[in-house]
Amino acid sequence: MAEKVASRPSQAEKISRHGDETVGLGIIGWILLVISLVFSLCTLPLSLFMCIKIVAEYERAVIFRFGRIVHAKPKGPGIFFALPFVDSFVCVDLRTISFDIPPQEILTKDSVTVSVDGVVFYRVTCPITSVKVVENAQGATQLLAQTTLRNVLGTKSLSELLSDRIGISQSMQEALDGPTDAWGIKVERVEIKDVKLPHQLQRAMAAEAEATREARAKVIAAEGEMNASRALKEASLIIAESPSALQLRYLQTLTTIAAEKNSTIIFPLPIDLMQQFVRKN
């Protein structure tokens, strides 16, 4: 029989369970609650417009009664009831939210100052915790993303920053996901948008890249000349072994010149005359 392994609850779930226990309202609280119920019954059906609340499919409502959370789970989506003058609620958006990280001046590991900006995608996983634990979840996540960007990129060199953006994004996501889990927030994705280098460094890198390309072009040209000289040497050896091959090459050259220079008149010499000069030499 397979053993059942229970998953460990996250920090946000622990905080939510610990703080959502039912707490007594006290004598004054019950008196105010009864007064609110009586007022609602006396003003029917007008009080229904004040009691009925609607939240969208992508929202959840966290209800407070006298400043305390009423239910262990948020309300929604759809219709729920809130007593007038007693209950208040906060709507939490469960959709994925994105925000831009402003450009940050960062000193890399090899002492180069660069300007880096990015974008963060996150969503609320526990509405009660996001309302109860942190005052402004989005603002806190933005500030944490800025400091995390500085801390992570400060340990990277310029070459790593330009070539390993995926690894940097994963490191930032892991660094953000830990603290935000206690706020009921899940960081889904972090991306580096742009890396701006100083103008002097850009010119130096461009000159270095141009010099590298020129050196590579010279090496390729030298290799081509070497291969061509080897091919010519092999061709000369083959032509030297066969006199008829030299005659055919001579006729082919004349055909090529006649095709390119139509206004030129060519008087071909017998190849035998040229061979006499070659033998004398």
Automatic annotation (TrEMBL):
PROSITE patterns: BAND_7 (PS01270)
Residues annotated as transmembrane: 27-56
UniProt keyword terms in alphabetical order: Membrane, Transmembrane, Transmembrane helix
InterPro entries per UniProt: Band-7_stomatin-like, Band_7, Band_7/stomatin-like_CS
A single cellular component GO annotation: plasma membrane
Band domain: residues covered: 50-209
Recorded superkingdom: Eukaryota
Keyword Membrane: yes
Keyword Signal: no
Compartment list: Membrane
Coiled-coil parts of chain: none
Family as reported in the entry's similarity comment: Belongs to the band 7/mec-2 family.
Protein name (database record): Stomatin-like isoform X1
Name of the gene this protein is made from: LOC105903183
